[in-house]
């Protein structure tokens, strides 16, 4: 099993993720090589909650321009939406 700090990189705090948090669904940015099982174990161990479902998606990097002429691209990353058991909460998302 992978380390919790390796799997979970940071929470995603957007308008959509705050609305989902009210429905016991929490959005996290995770390491691209982590599996749903790794994510489930990391969330359960790290936050002391029971996970019922894990959905993942890969977010592709977008083309950007750095400076006047130099083209580039933002990094691709992986997103996980974790559904918790009724009554469980992640304190990090509370009060938003």
Description:
It is a single chain. The chain is an alpha+beta fold and 96 residues long. The chain has one domain (4-60, 76-86): RRM (RNA recognition motif) domain (Alpha-Beta Plaits). 24% of the residues lie in helices and 36% in strands. The protein contains 3 helices and 6 strands; from the N terminus they run H-E-H-E-H-E-E-E-E. It has helices spanning 4-7, 15-21, 36-47; strands at 8-11, 25-30, 51-59, 63-66, 70-73, 77-84. The strands form 2 sheets. It has a 4-stranded antiparallel β-sheet with strand order 1-2-6-3. A two-stranded antiparallel sheet has the order 4-5. Strand 4 (63-66) and strand 5 form a beta hairpin. The protein is globular, with a radius of gyration of 15 Å. It starts with a helix and ends in a 12-residue tail after the last strand.
What is the helix/strand order?
HEHEHEEEE
Question: In one word, what is the shape?
Answer: globular
What CATH first level would be assigned?
Alpha Beta
Cα-based radius of gyration, to the nearest Å: 15 Å
The tally of helices reads 3
Number of domains: 1
Structural class by helix and strand composition: alpha+beta
CATH superfamily: RRM (RNA recognition motif) domain
């Amino acid at each position: 099993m992978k380390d919790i700090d390796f799997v979970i990189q940071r929470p995603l705090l957007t308008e959509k993720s705050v609305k989902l948090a009210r429905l016991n669904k929490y959005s996290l940015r995770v390491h691209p090589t982590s599996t749903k099982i790794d994510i489930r174990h990391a969330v359960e161990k790290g936050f002391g909650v029971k996970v019922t479902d894990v959905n993942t998606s890969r977010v592709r990097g977008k083309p950007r321009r750095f400076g006047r002429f130099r083209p580039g691209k933002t990094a691709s990353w992986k997103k996980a939406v974790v559904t918790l058991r009724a009554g469980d909460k992640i304190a990090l998302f509370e009060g938003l």
